[in-house]
Amino acid sequence: xxxxxxxxxxxxxxxxxxxxxxxxxxxxxxxxxxxxxxxxxxxxxxxxxxxxxxxxxxxxxxxxxxxxxxxxxxxxxxxxxxxxxxxxxxxxxxxxxxxxxxxxxxxxxxxxxxxxxxxxxxxxxxxxxxxxxxxxxxxxxxxxxxxxxxxxxxxxxxxxxxxxxxxxxxxxxxxxxxxxxxxxxxxxxxxxxxxxxxxxxxxxxxxxxxxxxxxxxxxxxxxxxxxxxxxxxxxxxxxxxxxxxxxxxxxxxxxxxxxxxxxxxxxxxxxxxxxxxxxxxxxxx
Length: 285
What we know:
Elements: H1 2-13, E1 19-22, E2 30-35, E3 41-46, H2 54-67, E4 75-79, E5 82-86, H3 96-109, E6 123-125, E7 128-130, H4 138-157, H5 162-172, E8 186-188, E9 197-200, E10 203-207, E11 213-215, H6 217-226, H7 232-241, H8 248-256, H9 258-268, H10 273-282
Antiparallel strand pairs: 1-2, 2-3, 3-5, 4-5, 6-7, 8-11, 9-10
């Protein structure tokens, strides 16, 4: 693997690596730090042939770089089974200063607008397909292309009981009772949890592994609370920059977190089914 990867990297960027060492992470490929002769380091992601989708990740990183000020790795080379990016210093320990900086960066990202919800093509969240057909209504998009799509795929794969899908469908028939249309579709990173954020000395140095589309900023904010990525410092600063209407923390964040929970049901199995069940029960379904 190492010799073969060295050859591929040399063919791609014209420099032969001096050392290749594994890094943590990577749902859709192995991840390596690559030290080059000029003392610079880059990151290589490698996927197996026949199932590689790293070209999609590269497209999303380029889109964020070209359409926002969000700090992301620069793509140096991309194909379905090999992605080479600049190496970003930092780790995923987010102190209060880093969380406040993240709030500023995401508030600016959420100001980037489109005229419809969705994206120019389907993308990925982790290793899973994420459909993004252009849709004029957020509630329709969230219902059909987030909740229904992910839940029905989970039922088809056997990781979600059909009885929970039926309850989800009954809930979605009254979606406008709890959720609302935003003023405009906002550009989202789409996979906002701790290991996808890098920081150093109280500043965010980079966001990685995006799952981009245009949607409601609240789904991004909700995801950031699911595993404790952001807390009071983040939300205090974000609210200074953008309005979060009342009721988000009390109810709407749980409803939006149905989507990443369904993603986790598919990726990691039935341990997350109980969380979906709890949220539905909490609103009477």
